[in-house]
Amino acid sequence: MNLVDLAWPEVAALSRDMPVVIPVAAVEQHGHHLPVVTDSLLLGEIVARVSRRLGDAVLFAPLQWLGNSHHHLDFPGTLSASPRVYLDMVADTAECFLAHGFRRIVVVNGHGGNDVPVKQALFELRQRHRTRDDLLLLMTTYWGLGTRPWEHDPAFVQREMGHACEWETSMVLRAAPQLVKPHEGLETVAFGNPFLPGFRAWITKERTHPGHIGSPQAASAGKGETLFALFAADLAAWLERVIRWDGRSWEG
After folding, report:
1. Computed over its alpha carbons, how large is the radius of gyration of the chain?
2. Position 248 pLDDT exceeds 90
3. Which one of 65, 89, 146, 147 counts the least CB within 10 Å of its CB?
4. How far is Cα 54 from Cα 42, in angstroms, rounded to an integer?
C-alpha cells in the first residue's frame, strides 16, 4: 500500500500497528556506464516487488531520492545532503508518522552512504521517545539481509555489493537496459582492504578512478533478475517479522 495513493481519511483509518516503510536511496555517480539514478531505481524496483507481495499489510512512504553522498561529490552529477541535514531529514520523516500514531517505523536503505546517518537518526529518535515502550524503530539495507547470490548462480563473480559493479549493473540491465552504457570492457576495481576489520573514513576518489568498484564487465540481465528476486524475497520475509511483532518483546 502506497501512502501517496491515499486520501488522509484513508490513512486515518489504518491500523497504527501497520509497519511504515520509508525507502531511502540516492542520486549519485555510478561510474562511466550507469545513470546517477541507479540506487533509487534499484530500490524502487525492490519496493514495488515487495509491495505486490505484501499487499495491504505494509504502508510504503515515497522513496527519498536525496541521500548522504558527499563522498561522491568529486564526480559530477552527484547530489547530496550533508550528514547532519540528512540525519535530520530521516528523523523528521519518521517523526511525522509517529505524530500520526504509527508505532512501527522501518527505514529500508538502498545506498551504502546512508547507513551510518540513518542508524544515528533512529538512535536519536528512540532517545527522544524513551518513555514509550510500544515503538519499533528499524533499518536495514536491502543487500544486507543474508542473500548469497552465488549459491543460486555460480556465474556470480562478486561476493559482496560494490558500486556500479557486477550486481548493480546486472540489476539496471534487468530494470532499465536502455540506461546502461558499454561496460563489457571495463576492468575490475578491487575492493581492497582499508585497515579491516577496523573502519577507515574515505572518499570515493581514494578507492576508484573511473567511479565503479567491483566487476561490472561480469554483469548480465539474467543475474539482475536473480538479484531482484532474492533481495525482494529477503526483504518481504524480514518485513513479515515486523508485522508479526507482538508490540512489546525485544526480539522479533
Report:
1. 18
2. no
3. 146
4. 19
Grid cell listed for 14? 489504518
Domain that holds residue 16: 3-244
Strands annotated E in 25-174: 59-60, 104-109, 136-141
Length reported for the chain: 252
Number of independent structural domains in the chain: 1
Q: What is the pLDDT of residue 251?
A: 83
Residue 205: is its pLDDT beyond 80?
A: yes
Contact present, 63 and 22 (Cβ < 8 Å):
no
Say how far apart CA 118 and CA 123 lie, in whole Å.
9
pTM of the model: 0.95
Q: Which grid cell sits at 165? A: 559493479
Q: What is the CATH number of the domain that holds 233?
A: 3.40.50.10310
Q: What share of the chain is helix, strand, coil (3-state, %, to 5)?
A: 45, 10, 45
In this structure, the number of other CB atoms found within 10 A of the CB of residue 106 comes to: 24
